[in-house]
Design brief:
The structure holds two protein chains of two kinds. Chain A is an alpha/beta fold. Chain A is 21% helix and 24% strand. The N and C termini of chain B lie far apart (59 Å). The longest helix of chain B has 24 residues, at 416-439. Classes of the chains: A alpha/beta, B alpha+beta.
């Protein structure tokens, strides 16, 4: 089971992926994937969701759980047993709870050993930067109207695998 | 022993009691917090260290979800947080952040502003407080010094002159009269300044009865989608100091409201006057939990249940509304459910632990039931005796927020499913009420969550049947006529209406006269219009006074250029300090900063628009001109709102003063 963000750019099972992309890219990737219906899918959002109203929700396997605090997110991650986990990042969860970020990142990595984990945000912030340090792949797709270009280089201590991917995305492989 | 104040000092609780004289009684009290490890074996080393370094004992922790094995640890919050981190957050902590003086009183079954024999839920209570009023007549936003102070006790004393002399006299008088309670507008803005000046002039500040003060930091925070600001506060020990200008509880409930809030929540009146109704209701729940031996969770870690998205969408829909057709209606009755949401919590047994275990009685309904009963009593009593109005108002606010609090992310005893359950039940009730009304040949005009506006008769029969079928109490208000305002697209607005009640008064919601940001001049004009139309008992009578009301508008526009600039001040609560786009609010923030006034998100500011097209404003106190076309437009808008009472043909009258170009005019 794969989730293809763009042609040639797929998210694989048993990986933890941090994705920074416009909302429509994420929505399109989820809605166009008929395979998803066959797998247990958990969508976790924070205090608000940018994607939920646009996602095709006919699948019986598509489940939702909201975390309003970092501790609730901790409990959700501790109990998750779905094939795909999509976590829509909400930085407000970590306001005043920054010390939980490394633990949450570690849990996402652990879950990613058996499930496909997607940590998603349309724009990067400090707490997302901490969480994505444990990701197997970091994918950033810049909005089409970005005058600078469609690619953003993320300054990271992570090892990068450079390559010319469609739409100029960079996939950063963690070894 | 009437408890006046409480504070946690020197390893114990200081209770300040009033029995003719005021006495401080110190009770040694070092309470533990509780910890439940999900996997105690993996933390055995930490448990050993806790036993060695602090007093730590095995115990059973009683929570609303059941009992769990754990440890009581006699240490502070810093230790609790360190344990939490070291346990990789795989532990549940309880009673870490409960106020120790509140916890002590809850455990002892006592409460502030009451004696041991008083019931906290009695609407009748007495006090023998020695009360003084202190008014600093200088502007707290502009002045760091007090040069003009009025003290009202048995007589009124006016102190003027140099700051040092004024403060020395003030301190002498306070020490002499030794009040138990000081009512002081802007106390929280003045007290830090007064203390600074007292230190500078080496004066002994006598507001505290033992020289000690508690400090509350200022903060800006989001509440119900709005940025709020709370001033820092310097709270004296052993004496109640109420900031009558900033205290929401005092403004809504008066002194009786503050004292009742203290009795109910178990917080000292110094705190109950400074807290929001949301904090008061959460404190009340904490007090009730401690009283019952239930541990109060430190973190909110229990998430909502996993749901299919369609289930979530069906559950999370908020309150029910019926959109009205805009216009004027005669002989309308408003059926209003009394404390609908808290009644639903109690009646439907909605509590975090009953979502999955419906059989047992939940903590929330048990805790809220006496509060709800008390509110029903005070609502009845205030109609007979106005002294209960303040208490009723505070109880109403606390009960209103108890619903929202169930969905608040950090609520100790909240859960989103409870929140959804309440709104779900309320939708059913309003729909059922509408069906009953229509079945009884009433015409339903409008409905908002817990109110329904209907035309028809007999209304008493409808009320009786609705109460019987919903098992909720309700009240009826009869309107001789009512106007439902339109929205910009022409459809009916949900929350903007005004009408004449059968007692001849006017009930107003959402229009200029009711809005906080309306300039005084505009509010005054609309107020005079409402006063005139209050004399009309029917639509036919309204038509007869149309010209009289229109003349108020014309006269107001004509008199506008000569009006004082201060009456044009717009009051706004600022949500931020920097704005991406040019706007009047952003200009006002800059104007305040230019005047050297520190502003913070959530603070209220008042400004006068001097040129709307160029986004030019001035703070109220320096404004000497205003943008006449801008304010003419506000007058037109306020008149338009009223004009719907005369039918569509009345309409607004544009520019009767012929001010068609922006101009700032000096007065």
């Amino acid at each position: 089971m794969l989730i293809e963000l763009r042609r040639g750019m797929a998210l694989h099972p048993c990986t933890f992926n941090a994705v920074i992309a416009p909302e429509k890219v994420m929505v399109s990737a989820l809605n166009s994937n008929t395979d998803l219906q066959r797998f247990l899918f958990l969508y976790v959002s924070g205090n608000y969701s940018r994607l939920l109203s646009s996602i095709n929700r006919s699948s019986k396997n598509f489940e939702v759980q909201r975390a309003f605090t970092s501790h609730q997110l901790f409990t959700i991650l501790k109990e998750v047993s779905h094939t795909v986990l999509l976590l829509e990042h909400d930085p407000t969860l970590f306001e005043g709870a920054e010390n939980m970020l490394p633990q949450i990142a570690e849990m996402l990595k652990d879950i990613g050993r058996e499930s496909l984990v997607i940590l998603y945000t349309p724009s990067i912030d400090r707490s997302f930067s901490v969480l994505m340090r444990q990701a197997d792949h970091i994918i950033e797709i810049a909005p089409a109207e970005d005058p600078v270009g469609t690619t953003r280089h993320r300054s990271s201590r992570l090892h990068r695998t450079e390559g010319n991917h469609p739409y100029g995305q960079r996939t950063l492989e963690v070894t | 022993m009437w408890i006046l104040d409480s504070a946690y000092r020197n390893g114990g609780v200081d209770l300040w009691t009033k029995d003719r004289t005021v006495t401080r009684i110190h009770h040694d009290y070092v309470p533990p917090f509780y910890i439940h490890f999900h996997d105690p074996h993996s933390h055995h080393e930490m448990i050993d260290v806790l036993e060695e370094r602090y007093r730590s004992e095995e115990c059973t922790i009683k929570t609303i979800f059941g009992e769990f094995p754990g440890y009581s640890v006699y240490a502070g919050r810093d230790v609790a947080e360190a344990i939490e981190k070291q346990a990789n957050f795989d532990a549940d902590l309880y009673n870490v952040d409960v106020r120790r003086d509140q916890r002590f009183m809850a455990e002892q079954g006592i409460a502030p502003c009451s004696t041991e024999n008083d019931s906290r839920f009695s609407p009748e209570f007495t006090h023998e407080l020695n009360i003084a009023e202190v008014k600093v007549l200088d502007d707290p936003a502009l002045s760091a010094f007090c040069s003009d102070i009025e003290i009202i006790h048995d007589e009124t004393t006016l102190l003027t002159g140099q700051t040092k002399d004024v403060l020395a006299d003030l301190f002498f008088i306070i020490a002499s009269i030794d009040p138990d309670l000081i009512l002081m507008p802007d106390a929280d803005r003045w007290m830090p300044k007064i203390r600074k000046q007292a230190l500078k002039y080496d004066l002994d500040m006598p507001f505290s009865r033992n020289g000690k003060y508690r400090q509350m930091d200022s903060r800006s925070y989001w509440s119900y989608g709005r940025m709020e600001h709370k001033e820092s506060a310097l709270i004296p020990d052993g004496r109640i100091l109420i900031d009558t200008e900033q205290s929401f509880v005092y403004q809504e409930g008066g002194l009786e409201g503050v004292l009742m809030a203290a009795r109910i929540s178990g917080l000292s009146p110094n705190l109950s006057s400074r807290f929001t109704p949301g904090t008061l209701i959460s404190s009340y729940e904490v007090y009730e939990a401690v009283k019952r031996g239930i541990a109060v969770p430190f973190r909110k870690s229990d998430p909502e249940l996993v749901r299919h998205v369609a289930t979530l969408q069906a559950a999370d829909r908020g309150g029910m509304m019926f959109q009205p057709s805009p216009g004027i209606y005669e002989n309308v009755d408003e059926l209003d459910f009394t404390s609908m949401y808290p009644s639903i919590i109690v009646q439907s047994n909605l509590s975090p632990e009953t979502i999955e275990h419906t059989g047992r009685r939940g903590f929330l309904p048990v805790a809220l039931e006496p509060l709800l009963d008390l509110r029903i009593t005070t609502k009845r009593l205030k109609k007979i005796d106005p002294k209960f109005a303040g208490i009723d108002s505070i109880l109403k606010w606390m009960l209103v927020t108890c619903f929202g609090y169930t969905g608040y992310k950090n609520a100790k005893f909240g859960r989103i499913e409870v929140h959804e359950g309440i709104t779900g039940r309320s939708r059913d009730i309003l729909l059922k009420t509408k069906d009953i009304a229509e079945e009884m040949n009433f015409c339903v005009l409008h409905g908002i969550v817990d109110c329904l506006w209907v035309q028809g008769a007999p209304i008493a029969a409808l009320k009786e049947r609705v109460e019987h079928e919903t098992r909720l109490l309700s009240e009826i208000e009869h309107f001789d006529w009512i106007v439902f305002e339109p929205m910009n697209d022409g459809t009916g607005a949900y929350n903007r209406y005004f009408g004449r009640l059968s007692d001849g008064s006017i009930k107003v919601r959402g229009i200029a006269a009711r809005r906080h940001d309306t300039p005084e001049y505009v509010r005054d004009m609309q107020g005079r219009m409402l006063k005139v139309i209050a004399g009309a008992k029917s639509i036919a009578e309204l038509e007869q006074i149309q010209e009289e009301v229109k003349n108020i508008f014309r006269d107001s526009v004509k008199a506008l250029p000569a009006a004082p600039s201060k009456s044009m001040a717009i009051s706004r609560r600022i949500s931020r300090l920097t704005y991406a786009h040019r706007c009047l609010e952003g200009a006002a923030v800059q104007a305040y900063q230019k005047q050297g006034v520190e502003v913070a998100p959530g603070m209220k500011i008042r400004y006068v628009v001097t040129d709307a097209r160029r986004y030019q404003v001035r703070p109220e106190w320096v404004a000497d001109s205003f943008d006449i076309p801008f304010y003419t437009a506000l007058l037109e808008k306020a008149w338009t709102e009223i004009s719907f009472a005369f039918g569509k043909e009345a309409g607004p009258e544009k520019n009767p003063g012929n001010f068609s170009h922006p101009m700032a005019m000096s007065v």
